[in-house]
Amino acid sequence: MIEYYETVVVGGGFGGICAAHDLLAEGRDDFVILERAAELGGVWRDNRYPNAACDVPAHFYSLSFAPNPTWTRSYAPWNEILAYINTVADDLGVRDRVRFNTRLVSASWAESAGVWNLRTAEGGSLSCRFLIVASGSLSTPRIPDLPGRETFRGEVIHTAHWDDRISLAGRRVVVVGASASAAQVLPYAVDVADSVLAVIRTPPYVMPKDEQLYDLEAQARFRDEPARMDAIRSAAEHRFNVEAETQAVMDEASLAKLEGQWRDYLESEIRDAGLREFLTPSYRFGCRRPVMSSTFYPALADRKTTVWSAEISAMTATGVATSDGRAWDADVVVLATGFTATAMFAGIEFRGESARSLKADVWREAPHAYKGTVVAGFPNLFLVTGPHTQASGSIIAVIEAQMKMIMQYIRLVDENGAVSVQPSQRAQRDFNTWVDGAMADSVWEAGACHSWYRLGMTGKVVTKWPGSLASFQKTTSTLDLDDLVLKSGAAGSQALSATCDLNIQGQPAEHAAAPPGLGRAGR
Predict the structure, then answer these.
(1) Distances in Å between the alpha carbon of 496 and those of 200, 206, 378, 421?
(2) How far is CA 354 from the centre of its chain?
(3) Domain count of the chain?
(4) What is the pLDDT of residues 87-136, one digit of tens each?
(5) Quick one: which H or E segment has residue 127?
(6) Domain of residue 381, residue span
(7) pTM above 0.85, yes or no
(8) 168 part of a folded domain
(9) Per-residue pLDDT tens for 35-69?
């Protein structure tokens, strides 16, 4: 017999735990969480390489309903974040709702029954009314295809698949990449290895990390005076919102100021003129996610470190080789090459109305959705951190905004005695036309960079939100009934004709361009 639940949640990271919280708050306890691994935690379960930590202030990188006074530093390390996720899950009492070691591989909409039929890699079958996919956009590592890898006598490891049994101490280490993970693991390698080769194809903007330690006394103050945590959270959110609005409109004066601050930091840390020139980005600040680190530049300038700009083209029995003929002997190659963020919800085949494939048919050219969350032709399917949802700041705040939108839609279905909800084709088309227009004027597309925000690193931006977190919260909190289609079992589909604006705190500044259905709501 096929198991049935009103709601199935996919993923046991922040998205899945937030979904569980909001479902329970709505009085909806008929749900199960499918988690592909043996434990909770998402990216913080997988990314446990040396020095792994968040680059967003910890009190902002927290669920709003579960403030944490016990962070030991302003930028939390991976193990504290992982412990926090598990603590929140236990406090909510949802661990027994998690189906561990269960990987969803297909979801098909059954029109006649009004349910999603699900199949797992382990051979299980489930069905549900509502399907919330919170498996994350940074969950599939980007592993370069390096000819000759099978001949390499050393060890190769990706930062997302770290193995503590592999030691870097006293060894010849290659670190490939220059994103946040590389900036964290490379200083560790320089500390313990015999020599380090840093392979950097595209140098990032690096800004110093103003890290503060929270001792027991500070933690006690946070616990006794929660307003202290709120103030840190609000200040960080405001700063990210201001920076994102600057980047969304290519504010030249503000970008030049940030680039000047970066230049001052580079020159204070890198004395070698040739290395400074190499580490100077050829694109505008913010086009790629800036790196927050006070140790990356010193590690690159260390006498142990050699920096190459050439891309690794192959591996040999003894090390790595580049297309320009150089070779380097190595014992360990660390791939800090990030994730395939544009290949969203990899490993899951979605088939909606008329058995259309989400990826092969609807997303053939590029991933797109309505408000980054729902897709026309895929009733009752909700995508957490889907297309165009990476608003600058805390991804947890993005998840919470999406979850509020999802709960609105689920309530709407029940209040109207309907079977399902989805956006209309017209609304989805108009929304994405607006997104494309707004993105064209932003630093993320016009800033001339390679980025994981873009298809193939240089094509269309499909992950980034074209504005601030505040504007994303505004957009997702507004229920545009004209944009939605409800379907009932007997009467077919019915379009909703009224518009209801749900107010939230902290509205963004207005701009001339705005998403369809929002008037002058801001970007």
Answers:
(1) 52, 48, 17, 10
(2) 31
(3) 1
(4) 999 999 999 999 999 999 999 999 999 999 999 999 999 999 999 999 98
(5) strand 125-133
(6) 3-140+341-501
(7) yes
(8) no
(9) 999 999 999 999 999 999 999 999 999 999 999 99
- Give the residue from 405, 374, 377 showing the smallest Cα distance to 388: 374
Is residue 426 included in any domain, yes or no?
A: yes
Could you give the CA distance from residue 150 to residue 314 in angstroms, rounded to a whole number?
Answer: 11
**CA–CA distance, 373 with 400 (Å, rounded to integer):** 12
As beta bridge partners, residue 99 has 34
Query: Tokens representing 122?
Result: 């382990």
Structure tokens at 185: 């693991």
Q: Mean pLDDT, to the nearest integer, of 490-509?
A: 39
Q: What is the mean pLDDT of residues 404-410?
A: 98
- 334, 339, 399 from 160: Cα distances, Å: 10, 9, 22
- Please state the three-class secondary structure of 27-81 as a single string: CCCCEEEECCCCCCCCHHHHCCCCCCECCCCCCCCCCCCCCCCCCCECCCEHHHH
* CB-based contact 522:438 (threshold 8 Å): no
Specify if 410 maps to a domain: yes
Q: Which two tokens stand for residue 434?
A: 């607006």
CATH number of domain containing 470: 3.50.50.60
The CA angle 13-373-141, to the nearest 5 degrees, is 45
Tell me whether residue 180 is exposed, middle or buried, using C-beta atoms within 10 angstroms of its C-beta: 0 to 12, 13 to 18, 19 or more.
Answer: buried
Only one residue has tokens 């070698």, namely 272
What pLDDT does residue 485 have?
Answer: 97
Whether 141 and 337 have beta carbons less than 8 Å apart is answered as yes
Percent of residues in the chain assigned helix, strand, coil, to nearest 5: 35, 20, 45
Structure tokens that stand for 179 in this block: 């994103």
**Residue 379 domain-assigned (yes or no):** yes
Nearest to 420 by CA among 70, 97, 131, 164: 131
Q: Residue 82 is encoded by which pair of tokens?
A: 């992982």
